[in-house]
Specification:
Blueprint: H1 6-11, H2 14-24, H3 28-41, E1 51-53, H4 58-63, H5 65-74, E2 79-83, H6 90-93, H7 103-112, E3 119-122, H8 124-129, H9 132-141, E4 146-150, H10 160-179, E5 183-187, H11 201-208, E6 214-219, H12 229-235, E7 240-245, E8 247-253, E9 260-264, H13 273-280, E10 290-292, H14 299-310
Parallel strand pairs: 1-2, 1-10, 2-3, 3-4, 4-5, 5-6, 6-7, 7-10
Antiparallel strand pairs: 8-9
Helix pairs in contact: 2-5, 10-11, 12-13
Length: about 325
């Protein structure tokens, strides 16, 4: 199996990066042959546009933004989900080289690589505490349709009343975002913890966010806390427009000593991908909403293995 690690990535010039990624990607001719074979047998393989979340490639983006995008594009990806270079955290971990650029220039650089960008993560302070209209204007200039708030900004000790007040803030911000021609989305990091009434925090979040104003992006890493992905995709069918997809191996040594379980490329863990994708399709998942997120030591290799696997899944 061909692999490509970060050391090789950073040591190689832009032309070499593109050639290396092309060499390990699926050849176009092979894809056409597979499509013809599937048509002959009546097989329906996953064939939606596939994006990647830029946060997993933040180190590489900090070194070479457009070179990184071109390399991932060559693996067969269609789009990228960005992280806001204006966010306090994002600009310190790899996106700071974009902070001073006008959003229209960032948009052009992305499009020049052949990728589309229709959604991006923003921190809760950018949506709720800073000027939400300014954030929405930035997102519009970046060419987005979905402004995704990543996490609530409320700690695990938050109460039900805290989330009710937060929900009111989110719904008001969503009106401002809508006025700018976009929709506000919410990305959960977890389903847990369980609140004081015995119900998971995520279910309270779903109760307080107005489904007519706020769309949902579902984080597959919720499975690491023992929650059933299909259950939630079914329970809230119709509310999801995008997915953060990765697999989970409960036997893998975790990042914390003494704990098992880790995120792995698609098809290498416990997720039943055919069943999960069928459940997700009960909602109107956007063309830019199938997003692979890999946060491992060698994320480019994880993206390669993930997209190659995803294209084999029968749905």
């Amino acid at each position: 199996m061909s692999t490509f690690n970060r050391r090789e990535f950073l040591a190689t010039g832009a032309a070499g990066l593109l050639a290396a990624a092309t060499a390990i990607g699926c050849a176009e001719g092979q894809g056409q042959q597979q499509a013809a074979a599937d048509a002959a047998t009546g097989t329906m393989r996953f064939n939606k546009p596939i994006s990647f979340q830029s946060y997993g490639m933040r180190r590489e983006i900090g070194e070479d933004f457009t070179g990184t995008l071109k390399t991932v594009k060559a693996l067969g990806f269609d789009g990228v989900e960005m992280c806001s270079p204006q966010g306090n955290h994002y600009k310190t971990v790899g996106f700071g080289n974009l902070t001073a650029l006008p959003p229209a220039e960032v948009k052009q650089q992305i499009e020049d690589t052949g990728l589309f960008c229709k959604s991006a993560h923003f921190q809760s302070h950018e949506v709720l505490d800073d000027d939400p209209a300014k954030t929405a204007d930035y997102a519009a200039a970046l060419g987005l349709t979905d402004l995704i708030m990543s996490g609530s900004g409320i700690g695990n000790d938050g109460t039900i009343d805290d989330f009710k007040r937060w929900g009111e803030q989110c719904n008001k911000a969503a009106e401002i975002v809508k006025a700018a021609g976009l929709r506000l989305g919410y990305h959960n990091h977890r389903v847990a913890p369980v609140m004081e009434d015995g119900k998971p925090q995520y279910e309270h979040i779903m109760d307080v966010l107005d489904p007519d104003l706020i769309t949902m992006q579902f984080q597959f890493a919720s499975i690491r806390d023992g929650y059933d992905l299909e259950y939630y995709l079914d329970k809230y069918a119709g509310r999801y427009s995008s997915l953060h997809m990765h697999d989970y191996d409960p036997a893998m040594k975790g990042r914390q000593p003494g704990r098992l379980g880790g995120i792995v490329p698609l098809g290498e863990g416990m997720v039943d991908w055919a069943a999960v994708l069928r459940a997700a399709m009960k909602s109107d998942i956007a063309d830019h909403g199938y997003i692979i997120e890999i946060e491992t030591e060698e994320p480019l290799e994880g993206l390669r293995r993930s997209i190659n696997y995803l294209k084999t899944v029968e749905v």
